[in-house]
Amino acid sequence: MHRVAVIAVPPATLFDLTIPELVLGGVRVGGEPVYRVRICTARPGPLATNSGLSVAVPYGLAEAADADTVIVTGTVAREDVEPQVLEVLRRAAADGRRVASICTGAFVLAEAGLLDGRPATTFWARSEEFAARHPRVDLRPGVLFTEDGNLFTSAGLSAGIDLCLHLLRRDHGAAVANEAARLMVAAPVRPGGQAQFIAAPLPPESGSTLAATRAWALERLQLPLTRSELAAHAGMSVRSLTRRFHAETGLSPLQWLLHQRVLRAQELLETTDLPMDRVARLSGLATTDSLRLHLTRRTGLAPTAYRAAFTHREGPSGREASRQSAPSGRSAM
Predict the structure, then answer these.
(1) In angstroms, how far is the first alpha carbon of the chain from the final one?
(2) N or C, fewer C-beta in 10 Å, the chain?
(3) Are 6 and 147 found together in one domain?
(4) Is the dihedral of CA 22, 24, 25, 29 positive or negative?
């Protein structure tokens, strides 16, 4: 059982506080729960939130002292954090345990001194404030989440879901993470480098969305799709298609296709015994060399090593899964 301690710093952002339990709390592998998620705070009892509601938190920081993953969620208070919270975070990081932040929780990690000289992100609307307060941090305000060794940070609100899905994928593979996303009716695992702030995320009422074209492309990932073919399906020019893709996903059409193809390859490696050349063809990566190149870039593991680390099979009694020891390399999709 992987123990997750969610540290709430009052006034806590209520939505952020619920994300780790929503994403990780219900995950089962081989029919068994694999995460124990507990919210804790420096002073157990009523916890003030940004919504004006008070939440009862029964656990103190002892829950974080031996947790495998420690997550700090967003908070309105971005300075003068309780010293015992900062000490718990420093000790967890020094022990090599996984430490993460959601939204403005990055301010707490920075105050603990954990982000100096390291990449980090936070809610885009607080980026200027963060940069002014913590100039030693390599702030990357445009991305959904960052990963540097055992330290992770995410942008605001729904980007916390992306980060938790990313952690889930690192622990149990793409198939389990995508299944969790489907259960939450959330987007599949998005790349951390995707833009967190998209100036025009929704088309005008008289315009059209590319959702149908993206669904069409997902059914044809094994084919060498081009921008012209995508544009033809969408009924627009290549230039308009590219502009709309950026507006709706933060990615170019070809970047989006590559991300989806690597995800498809990961699922095939986890859930089938297909040979590598077949996995490459079915995912649209064409060749085993291309499969090896892109998978290694995204996960730090070659296809054979990835399959050895993550295996998931359908058995007569439902989903059965086995996982070998966690890979030590990074997974930074």
Answers:
(1) 25
(2) N
(3) yes
(4) positive
Number of domains in the chain: 2
* Domain region containing 220: 204-249+251-327
CATH number of the domain residue 45 falls in: 3.40.50.880
- Rounded to whole angstroms, the maximal C-alpha distance in the chain is 59
Helix locations, the chain, DSSP H: 14-24, 62-65, 83-94, 105-111, 127-133, 159-172, 174-183, 211-218, 227-234, 238-249, 253-271, 276-282, 288-299, 303-309
Omega cis (within 30) before 11: yes
Question: Residue 105 corresponds to which amino acid?
Answer: G
pLDDT digit string, tens, across residues 251-301: 899 999 998 999 899 989 988 999 999 999 999 999 999 999 999 988 888
Range 200-228 average pLDDT = 77
pLDDT in tens, 165-208: 999 988 998 888 888 888 886 766 565 655 554 444 444 444 45
pLDDT of 111 reads: 95
> For the whole model, what pTM was predicted?
0.72
